[in-house]
């Protein structure tokens, strides 16, 4: 398709001359504008463009029309402005908030915002892979006597599964009960799978209590490879082996939830399906967590592949001055950063 403008003024609609000129162009489809006439030529047949466009202007751009005694300019839009808004949680007012759930008030209101996205983030690994929400299980002695004990591991960043196994066995040996013999029940890793075993007595092991609202996939049993909720071991069935391999990685990735408190509905394109619904309607980005160890910093951007962010486009232009930023684990729970500060850079497009 070729477009020519004011190149054949001499034709003035002459069919024979126009057809011959178009044939000399050696193209099967052409559009020519001759003074106030526009011609469309396809497969040796030509028509005026009004045949297709009803004499409407096919080239978009600013135009002026008169309405009564006023001149109205149409097709004009403001130039877009793009800026980076850097949010550092170190400057939050609630400095004693240890979770990654921060409310901030911007010093300057950003007006007429059309879209927003996460450009990059810096997140220190100050969170524990074994924390107060995923560090416990319940063991119930069913024979010779009946008693129930909650086993709670010390929260911390465990560098290996063997360190977790050692901590579990120390906690089991610390149980004081007349029907419980030290060393009678233990936990080990065999073929990268978790194994609870007993030598004589009968036990029920449960990983999720009724009060646990975070879900099975967020508990200690899931990290150890157990997909069920409860298991029994006794004299005849001495082992309870996990269905999956144990993987001591929490969280596997981090979701960034951004609430800009706008009244205008937005077209949220980042969906994270949970068991029954999306984890959080404000999720805007996901950050992959590398195996770099405690105390290091995750620097994620589009360039290094650790960051995936939607461009949140608004149906109407909005003004932003207050922002809530949350870091969520892969189950949608707010991450306990143990007081660590993180930074989020937002790319904001406005008029």
Q: Care to describe what's here?
A:
The protein is mainly β. The chain has helices spanning 15-24, 50-53, 161-173, 220-223; strands spanning 2-5, 29-34, 37-42, 45-48, 63-67, 70-74, 81-88, 101-124, 136-143, 147-152, 185-190, 193-198, 202-206, 230-233, 239-241, 253-259, 266-267, 283-288, 297-301, 307-309, 312-328, 343-350. Strands 7, 8, 16, 17, 18, 19, 20, 21 and 22 form a nine-stranded antiparallel sheet that branches. The two termini are 35 Å apart.
Q: Level of helix content?
A: under 10%
Overall radius of gyration? 33 Å
Number of helices, where a helix is a run of at least 4 consecutive DSSP H or I residues: 4
Which structural class do the helices and strands define?
Answer: mainly beta
N-to-C SSE string, H for helix and E for strand? EHEEEHEEEEEEHEEEHEEEEEEEEE
Supply database-style keywords.
351 residues; mainly beta; Jelly Rolls; 3 domains; nine-stranded antiparallel beta sheet; 4 helices; elongated
